[in-house]
Amino acid sequence: MIGEVGELPKAVDALRQANRIVVIGCSGGGKTTLSLRIAGALQLPFISMDREFFWLPGWQNRTKPDERARIAVAAAGDRWVMDGTGSSSFDLRLPRAQFVLWVRMPRHLCLWGVVKRWLRWRGRSRPHMADDCPERLDPEFLRYIWTFERKVSPAIATALARYGADVPVYEVKSRAEMRALLDLVDVSA
Hints:
5-stranded parallel β-sheet, Cytidylate_Kinase-2, P-loop_NTPase
């Protein structure tokens, strides 16, 4: 893949120098946890795409023009960690990004992650979701996770090549890799 950073120490060096970081991947893989820790360690503002762009109270979608306008304003900022895949806005975010973390956990871990999240937050909105959007778990969402790598990841790779060919990309493929990355970022921040 274009821009791929293979070695963890090299990725951490590039990550520490970045002021605009996009964190993408399948739901339940740990994107938000990773994004929050990176934002805290590097003292960068955290932006939740779910909360700020995608959802209105009561699980209502924003209109696409409103969503894109909000994303464009946020992406124009000088410093941020933006948590969310949102492939329809890669053209706005990737040209501005200085680093991409692609969380590519196995689907069984992503499924387990969303089940744990649902158990923790069911009946309530989690902190980085729009108000009045209680955590939910439905067959369509589970199917999305199950087929993410096959259906969504190829489009992500294409978008990275098209809109972010010069942006370093580091793929996190296990919980151990995520912990190692966070340990190095925390120590070196």
